[in-house]
């Protein structure tokens, strides 16, 4: 496997892992503005964990969601997928570091290193898929409510936290694909050595004896 591809894939996966950690606590997953007078203008924003409001004076107030079971199903699923993405990214970074050619953790066994690096690529792919599914599911619910003319409640728009999550998913998938497609998971080509059999050795010895005896008889003619 090309060491440059290993480094590029590791950088992409690691950057995607960091961005997942940035997207999870980001408060602006969905944003809504309540326009009115200067005093009543406010901005509402939510993420997976809390709902916040900011007025025109810059004072903000946040309220955490009281119960997990009382939340919508897509929020619960998004939480689980984002946590799974962080866990998969952690295993992906560790496996890729161990499986790199410049690493001494796995010794000089290139086959083992290739398989460990491929496992790291699989974890990066899982991280990217979990992130993309979570972010896209959350965004789909935002757009569905926004374009529903019969929805009586407050409508929101896509916030910056979702864009960070999408970028994280793309980077993780690219890094995992590079590792999975480039690492050598096959076995090494074995060097074939000639193993003479007992019959071959006996025939060669007999030929040498016959040659020596013939040379001895002809030498004195």
TrEMBL record:
Transmembrane regions: 7-24, 80-100, 121-140, 160-181
Entry superkingdom: Eukaryota
Subcellular location: Cell junction, Tight junction; Cell membrane
UniProt KW keywords: Cell junction, Cell membrane, Membrane, Tight junction, Transmembrane, Transmembrane helix
Membrane topology: Multi-pass membrane protein
InterPro entries referenced in this protein's UniProt entry, alphabetically: Claudin (IPR006187), Claudin_CS (IPR017974), PMP22/EMP/MP20/Claudin (IPR004031)
PROSITE patterns, alphabetized: CLAUDIN (PS01346)
Family the UniProt entry places it in: Belongs to the claudin family.
Role this protein plays: Claudins function as major constituents of the tight junction complexes that regulate the permeability of epithelia.
Protein's name in the database: Claudin
